[in-house]
Structure formats: C-alpha cells, structure tokens
Write a structure and sequence with these properties.
- With 110 residues, the protein is α+β, with helices and mostly antiparallel strands.
- Strand 1 and strand 2 form a beta hairpin.
- The longest helix is centred in the N-terminal third of the chain and has 39 residues.
Length: 110
C-alpha cells in the first residue's frame, strides 16, 4: 500500500532503459570516428609517405610558406632547399607541407 502503481511498474524495466539511454552516446562516438578521426589519420599517413618520398629536384612548400627546390637530402630529418639562386637553407622534413612538383629520378651514372 505504500508503493504507488507507477513506481512498481518502472522498477522492472530499469535494465532496458539503461541500454536505451546509452545508445545515442555510442552512436555519437561512431559518427565522430568516421567523420573526424579516420580522415585525419589518413591525411597524416599520406603526409608521412610524401615526406618519405622526397628527393632532389622536388619543388616543395614549407609550413612557413616558402617555396623552394630540394637540392640535397641530408638525412632522415633534414633536407637542403634552394629558395633563391645561391641561397640554400636546411629545413626539417616535418616542416614541409606540400610537394608541388616531383622531379625525375636522378641517374647514378650522371
């Protein structure tokens, strides 16, 4: 007599209500993964591949907006870029944001 009929009926369906309330949050995480996280990971992978394939003669744009031509690949972390005639700077590979034009492979005998 102390328990009203409304409370007695809602007590049996509490487990199903929890799953129903959790479903929109799970759906939101799935949407975030496919719209935000996955494309960002793909762009990062393409950027790493682009930096790994840098070679002498490529025209590049640095993250500071300087356009130049790669004259020498020094090591895994640095490249030498010519930004004007007889003006060469050393640039970290990670600071190259774009490769404008790819050069032909340099022949070993030339």
């Amino acid at each position: 007599m102390f328990i009203t009929p409304a409370f007695a009926q809602s007590a049996t369906g509490a487990g199903g209500e929890f799953l129903t309330n959790l479903m929109p949050i799970v759906l939101m995480f799935i949407i975030f993964y496919f719209l935000l996280f996955r494309p960002q990971q793909q762009r990062a992978k393409l950027h790493r591949e682009m930096l790994a394939n840098l070679r002498r003669g490529d025209t590049v744009v640095t993250s500071g907006g300087i356009i130049g031509k790669v004259t020498k690949v020094l090591d895994d972390r640095e490249v030498e870029v010519e930004i004007a005639s007889d003006t060469r700077v050393r640039v970290m590979r990670g600071m190259i944001s774009e490769v404008r034009s790819k050069s032909e492979p340099v022949k070993d005998g030339a």
